[in-house]
Amino acid sequence: MNKIEFVDQTIRDAQQSLWGNMMRTEHVVPIAEEMDRIGYRAIATVGSQAFTIQVRNHGENPWERIRTLSRLMPRTMLRGSYQTASLSSFDLSTPRNIISLWIKRSVANGIKSFWICDYQENVERFRYFAQIAKAEGAEVVTALMYTSSPAHTTEHWVQKAKLIASTKECVDRIMIEDAAGVITPERTRELISAIQRHCGGIPLEFHSHCNSGLAPLCYLEAIQAGVTTVHTAVAPLANGTSLPSTESVLKNIRRLGFSADIDEGSLAAVSAHFRKIAGKENLPVGTPREYDLFHYDHQVPGGMMTNLTRQLRELGMENRLDEILREVVRVRREFGYPVMATPYSQIVGVQAVENVVSGERYKKIPDETVKYALGYYGPSVIPVDPNVMDRIMNWPRTKEFLDWKPEGYLKSIEELRQEIGPDLSDDDLLLKILIPGKPIKKAVSRQNAPVTPAAASLDTATFAGEFRVEVDGDIFNVRILPPDNETKASVKAMKQEPRELPEGAVLSEMAGLILSLEVKAGDSVGEGDPLAIVEAMKMRRPINSPRSGTVKEILAKEGEIINAGAILMVIV
């Protein structure tokens, strides 16, 4: 009887897809030992992008989460991740030694397996970092990132499989990942059969999302075609835009005559735990999605759809979502059908938003679009549309990137440490590079955090207060009243009073995080000069001066989260 293994994505991709990375360490620790007893081949944990959310949103130390889980899960490999071109999705200037240090420190903190988000566009670079991971004693699982388009033929995937096979000495497994959830059962059989013939015998894993509702069926096709490892999540965090549930896949494979060493008692306990967390934290529980043919056109992944909807809400444009998705279809075709997964899905999505918001296609072109067109993210599957390429090549900033090379790519760790913070540990140095503008601090788990007298005696009979709370971009006044008052709490939306903009005000067009300010008060600037870098939709976007003049006043701060329309500075 063929045995099937499971990789658990509950605390990584599943909660990223359904909960927007709102899972905190305290949600996982109480159930971690039970997770270890289930019998998973590996348990995936979050990577660099979610590290950012852990620090900024949760006040946690991401390395401490890895250390804690590694200690509580001694029998199960903890799977982390890295990218070969950058520490985060879009920063192509990450020094090579920083990525190497990331791999080494991940292993030192408890990671025993890596999946690599790679598109086989630079095999030698992939091999360089894979050899480091292997030397550290880690398993290397490279991704084959699936998508559907007229350009992505079976021969395309065969060539990808051959490239991976050429690095067989440092690759343990291939993970076929369908981030957008667009693979069909028929295509699953064809794809796996073709890859198996050309991957040099490297074992295959299968990972697909439920956006179209077909993933559970595709899993069964994958297993019958020869895949022996599948990625799933416990039922409360499965389905929707997440992955199939472990419970359902386990039941179905047994009906097909396959087996799995899964402790169903422990699985039920873990599932019940996260269902309870969802209820307590008012987080969604995954449900099966209806089939939507339009999804096969735009292929926007679930997590990106959440971010896109939020950004449009902040701009008061949520009603234009379908218009933007239609523009996504058009931009993706013009860009040569990139895979709709990080970083390409964000590059396509941001350009589509710019085209719609500005009222003119390619009136504004982000730096990432320029770098993509110039091949810095790897060659497109088919050439970029010539008319669009002309627009990009005639864009004023494009000339700045024609001979672009990552600055300081070969700098040593000690050189970087001296520049960034001589007293920083390796772990804190990585966090400082990953999360600029955010002070590195030791985070304390909420579960074990020292309780202040005020918090310890939070008796509603004597406690009352008023707070300003932001929820999805909307500001609320929240007033907590003593229980003898008939109304326990009153909440009212703050109506933003019309404000008079100072002459020369520079506004932010999108909500985001201010990573850096490039000028100071008193500086002279020219039209188009860079003023600040804002991170929005996972992309770092420059804000350039709309006019020549002098910086009179700076109202924004590095590390500050701003709304669309916020005043950044005044230039007169």
Overall tally of structural domains: 4
Regions with pLDDT < 50 over 5+ consecutive residues? Answer: 440-497
Could you state the CATH homologous superfamily of the largest domain?
Answer: Aldolase class I
Task: Please summarize the sheet with the most strands.
Answer: 8 strands, parallel, barrel
Per DSSP, what share of the residues sits in E-state strands of 2 or more residues? Answer: 15-25%
Helix content: 25-40%
> What is the strand arrangement across the widest sheet?
1-2-3-4-5-6-7-8
Question: Do you know the CATH topology of the largest domain?
Answer: TIM Barrel
Principal-axes shape call? globular
> Count of DSSP helices?
21
Ends distance: 76 Å
Q: Count all strands and give the number.
A: 19
CATH class categorisation of the largest domain: Alpha Beta
Task: Tell me the CATH architecture of the largest domain.
Answer: Alpha-Beta Barrel
Mean pLDDT: 87
- Structural class call reads alpha/beta
The radius of gyration computed from the alpha-carbon positions, rounded to a whole number of angstroms, is: 24 Å
